[in-house]
Amino acid sequence: MISLGIDSGTQSTKTVILDADSGEVLAHAAQKYDLIDGLPPGHLEQAPADWLSAVEATIEACCAEVGERRKEIRGIGVSGQQHGFVALDAANQVIRPAKLWCDTSTAEECALLTAQLGGNANLIALAGNTIPPGFTASKILWLKRHEPENFARLATVLLPHDYINFHLTGVKWMEYGDASGTGLLNVRTRQWHSEIVEAIDSKLRDKLPPVGSSLEKNGLLRPALRDRWGLSDGIIVSAGGGDNMMGAIGTGNVRAGVVTASLGTSGTLYATADAPVIDAEGEIAAFCSSTDAWLPLACTMNVTVLTEQVRGLFSWNHEELETHVCRIPTGADGLLFLPYLNGERMPNLPNARGVLHGLSVDNFTPAHLARAAVEGVTVGLAYGLRRLAALGVVPSEIRLTGGGSKSPAWRQICADVFGVPVVCLASSEGAALGAALQAAATVEKEAGTPGGLPQLVDRLVALDESSRCVPKARAQALHAEQLERFTNLTSLLHGGAWI
Fold first, then answer.
1. Nearest 5°: phi and psi at 290?
2. How do residues 232-286 score in pLDDT, each as one tens digit?
3. Cβ contacts of residue 119 below 8 Å, gap of 6+?
4. What's the count of helices (H) and strands (E) in the chain, helices before strands?
5. What is the predicted pLDDT for the residue at 342?
6. Cα dihedral sign for 137, 142, 148, 154?
């Protein structure tokens, strides 16, 4: 049986075709797109039509690559960037561009909602999470306050992957995993929380789609698309999920004990849990998974964002960046980068900006800046790992994914900073692979085939042992000191209103 996985991200859409019997990726394609230019600082938006164009183009390319084997495709799964707000009118037309996960323009709406609902502690008591600027709830209130004419047209709230599912099937529906990142879902009960929903608008509940199990299908592929791509009848579109939820599946993170770290535009650390993991301080997101479990997650907003800025500053290719990072010793001779170029989500500092600390004549070089950038974003993630550990999520190994994981130097820095071995996956497809695996499991479930997603993942997700790195004691100790300095500097500068 063959399944198709789609990963619709912030920068591009990637699609793969997976042979669910052998585990071989038979085809893959990608198409890039851009953010909307010219918006005020903090506003990051995209046109949902660009996602659909990329989805269709990459599916067509993959189908062309496998030829007549396209007739063997039985399931499609969709991974999408979390938290984005797709607003549809009564005719199911997109009202305005989607505000994305990285949009921080809704900080005022977060503060208003939080105050109205009794503060962060009460929000956590109500639903398990606070409402940071990244979450969808504040984006809906932003629309109501800043574009009332558009809010008046609002008939349906969807997330990016839900919108793609709707395009594929004609069904509007949300699964637990991605829905838990809206800020509107009680993660303990996995139901919309009426008090939070009504704090935004008394009629909002009618605009939210049904929410249900991530192990159920979303629907069947629409005949018009099936015929356009030359596919067979009865193709199932699975529930899909957010990119982190699908990344968990694609890295074999479907049972308690495994932790995944994604080094992408943003950075995430997440683990599967059998019960909700609620952070009383609100720093760890108490998400649901897209496997009907839970997915405690730490997220930072600046990872390859920073390293790509440094690379572009000196016109280096990726190999040159790697060379310069390797030239400089652990700790960058005292140079520390607080990497808050886009503000920050953890700690929750939406208006923060980056800081270089510890500059001297000796470390004022391009290579030191490169090393400090890689170390800074990794130490920022270690802040989240320390919080996860305080909540009982202690890894024995971390599985790396995302663009940064391709760097051998960065992998070793991760092992040294995190203090546990790290390893990459044999497939670099990540969330797209997770989407294809979820689709295959859904097809099996619908057919009554014994087994399930964990068994499928165990059989098909393989590690790349050649990428494994273990911590070096001296470097680990230096990075532990770096984390303390990083944390204290952030606290002091924020306390003085300097970041």
1. -100, 30
2. 999 999 999 999 999 999 999 998 878 999 998 889 999 999 999 999 999 999 9
3. none
4. 17, 24
5. 86
6. negative
Query: Cα(479)–Cα(85) distance, rounded to whole angstroms?
Result: 38
Active-site residue (options: 50, 103, 178, 243): 243
d(CA 281, CA 275): 18
Token readout for 202 is 């008394």
Helix (H) or strand (E) holding 443: helix 431-447
pLDDT at 434: 96
Q: Residue 103 catalytic?
A: no
In the block, tokens 């609100």 appear at 282
- Write the CA distances from 65 to 25, 59, 61, 107, 460, integer angstroms: 11, 10, 6, 45, 22
What are the structural domains of the chain?
A: 2-251 (3.30.420.40), 252-429+462-499 (3.30.420.40)
For residue 479, what are the CA distances in angstroms to 375, 422, 426, 489? 9, 16, 28, 15
Structure tokens at 273: 């849990």
Instruction: Map residue 342 onto helix, strand or coil.
Output: coil
Tokens of 95: 């009202």
Which among 357, 400, 393 is positioned nearest to 487, based on CA atoms?
357
The residue assigned the tokens 């924020």 is: 494
R_g of the chain, CA atoms, integer Å: 22
Whole-number Å distance between alpha carbons of 161 and 378: 28
Rounded-to-integer distance, Cα 426 and Cα 467, Å? 9
Question: What contacts 11, CB < 8 A, 6 or more positions away?
Answer: 32, 33, 265
Structure tokens at 411: 């992998």
User: Is the CB of residue 428 less than 8 Å from the CB of residue 404?
Assistant: no
- With a cut of 70, list the residues of the chain below it in pLDDT: none
